[in-house]
Task: structure prediction
Amino acid sequence: MDRLIFADSIVSASALIGLMILVASIKRSGRDSISRRFLFSLYIIQALLLFRILTWLTGIWFFDVLTFITAGILPLGMIILTEGLLRRHASKPVKMIAAGTAIAFIPLAFLPESFAEPWRSVLLLAAQLWGFFTAGYMVWKRDKDSLSSGENRIIERIALSIPLIIPLVITDFRIPDFEFPVRLSGVAILFMCWLTISLERSHLKNTDMLRAFLILLSGSVFAGMAIAYLVNADMTGYFQICVITLSVTMVAVLYNDSVALRFDERRDSLLKHMAEGNISSSATFLRGLQNHPLVEGAVILEEHDLQDFDKKLLNAVFKNDALQRKVDMSKANSSAEIEHLNWLFERFNATHVILVSNKPLSLVALNMPSLSASPGAETELRAVQRMAILISQRKKSQ
Result:
């Protein structure tokens, strides 16, 4: 395989994987009108990348046709997405140009290359640049006061990728005497995916994302220099190595961010259970939590499970702190309490025990080693404990 095609294929495949990660993340978050419009645009880009890779790998003419058709639909997808983000329709001329472009490239895609090139590629580049510039102009001229702060933040975050996409898209078109060693649109797509997936982390600012991207870029350049030196590559090879390194690294970062978001969603499900769970009794409430990752495998200890323990000592221990940790047994008031707690932890193979009811005495024992616990895990456990205590107290007062 030609080295240029190999580099292009790796970068485009990385962008395709990044889009798949982003699509999965958006689907988990819900399907409102903006999400549906965004998914439509992402599906177009996915199809474009897939058909382009298949064209390079197989040389089949029909995949090249599909590549041109999907590339011609892209400006329409950008206008549809921008309309959804702004909650405003584009002007009639803009809609007609976008729709006309999508329709026109269907027959143009079937023309023989010997007849259609290079003017067909020039038209396609002009159409895509028109789409990006038009979308950017709509975003720039939007009425910010008519949108919420959250909507403005989404628009600004996604719009950050436009200045990078526009110049990098040009490298996808092989202009005589101005051919890049690798097509760079995949990098811009990955950057857009990263910016979009970071929207669920409201504490991150645009400057944080730009700074992180610059760090990734610097690391890729350094790694490219090292690898190019080891394999004695020329400048073209060095450039290709840097871009491939950046693309693959961004895929890894995207996947890591999506996993972190899924973890946050599981944590949110704990809050959802606390808000919507069955509170007819503390035992019922806790049983509903037993499948949650935070307390998975937790054992509810009723009075009959604690017959071998001195309940007065246990009450004294949990009066000081309703959440007892195995690593903090030395903080107990007496050696008898330490011995009792040690027996409790060892017998039920637990690292944490929480009090959920005083009368009758009820505890929850769970194994959550400190290495696997998130920073907020114990705070969440204390919230569960407070909720269970309040439920038990409410039952007594009824």
Remarks:
- The chain has a mean pLDDT of 80.
